[in-house]
Amino acid sequence: MILQILLVYFFVLLFLAGIVILVYGALRDMLSPQVFFMALGLKVVSGVLLGLLYSHYYCSGGDTFAYFDEAVGLASLDSSAFWSEITASTLVSEPVRAIWFMRLVAVFIYVTGADYWLTTVVFSVVSFLGTVYVVRAFSLWDRTFKWPAVLAFMFVPSVVFWSSGLLKESLGGAALCSIVGFYAVFRSSRQHGVGDVFFMVLSILYLGIFKYYIAAMLVPAVVFLFLIQFSKSWLPYWSEWQRASLIVGMLAFPVYVALTWLSPNFQMSRLIAVIQFNHELILSQSTTSTLEVLTVTGTFLDWGINGIYYIFSGLFRPFLFESWAFPVWLSAIENTLLLLITFFALSRKGGVKKLFKIECIIAIVYVASCAALLSYSVPNLGTIARYKVYYFPVLILLLASATVGSFRLGSQK
Q1: Which has the closest alpha carbon to 158: 391, 1, 377, 404?
Q2: Contact, 130 vs 137, CB < 8 A?
Q3: What span, in angstroms and rounded, lies between the C-alpha atoms of 243 and 227?
Q4: What would the pLDDT profile of 234-279 be if each residue is shown by its tens digit?
Q5: Prediction pTM value
Q6: Residue 69 main-chain phi, psi, to 5 deg
């Protein structure tokens, strides 16, 4: 038994090492070995620490061990029963996304025989490779984006931690990197390879299945940016705002149809009710670090006030004074630094370079939309820290780029 486990570790780690060495060899002129292997080490260590956090600190096991335990149960079935269970349909009343993710993990365990800790290393490495791809893409697009991208996708502590290990966010973070990186490669005027297209399609499918609300905000935003770039040759005499208005009008109905096909929760008759149900459910299950709706004027002005409140909370809370419980205070330190950096970026003089203006606007809209939707529908600061994986890197990229001169976020001279 021990020999079998050692052989599994040997061959899986050897395979991962081969992939990592090949990727590094292709990028060694772009990323120093110190940056590359430090980022890889942080990902792997974070994945292991995530498992230790849930097994020794929370003692509940959390999602990460629940996925693995159920996956092991499936993987222990005989071949016929296993594939029958993997391909079985699910009921609407069941936690569909959790079931399909567990099945994905089960396939990996069935093929490799990996234990929890080896599985978490593999997921962490896959997540890391996603960050390498997006950093390369931004570096090719414009050299001033290189270090902002390195910081945003490889070294933000909360993003690194919650996008590592055996969680949906590990592959979700990699999917985000693949989709955003695909656009950055396009903007670099380089032709996409077969691998670019394959992983982009795979990433859209993953987010559509496991994180459909992120896909609903990210994919239309990227499609809009592609169409804006194409429209420069289609409508050369139109202003960018005219082209943008036309594209928004063209996309509105197809996007709505696509979203309602993706999930019936996006139907106008259900959307608000589903969000409100999730909001009240999370509040009823949480005892601390909750985000209650504010009542200030008792009028429609409260809608705007709460909109700003939830966007701000989704970006910058918890504050240092809100909780000293571990690991919340670590997130609070990061949020405080981010708030200070945001003030600094906004205080700088100069306007956004025309070359990047539309991307900057769409990025801000995407970040604000994610912060507002997630902080309201999941009004628990601990849970939001995990979901920031999907929009924090974009915000950090904006702020870091503003400090190195790619563009300014402050008022124009």
Answers
A1: 391
A2: no
A3: 9
A4: 988 888 889 999 999 999 999 999 999 988 889 988 999 999 999 9
A5: 0.92
A6: -60, -45
* Cα(186)–Cα(22) distance, integer angstroms: 23
Q: What is the pLDDT of residues 280-319, one digit of tens each?
A: 999 988 877 788 898 888 888 999 999 999 999 999 988 8
Per the CB < 8 A criterion, the answer to whether 122 and 113 are in contact is: no
- pLDDT interval class at 189 (50, 70, 90): confident
- For residue 410, is pLDDT > 50? no
> Do residues 387 and 374 lie in contact, with contact meaning Cβ atoms separated by under 8 Å?
yes
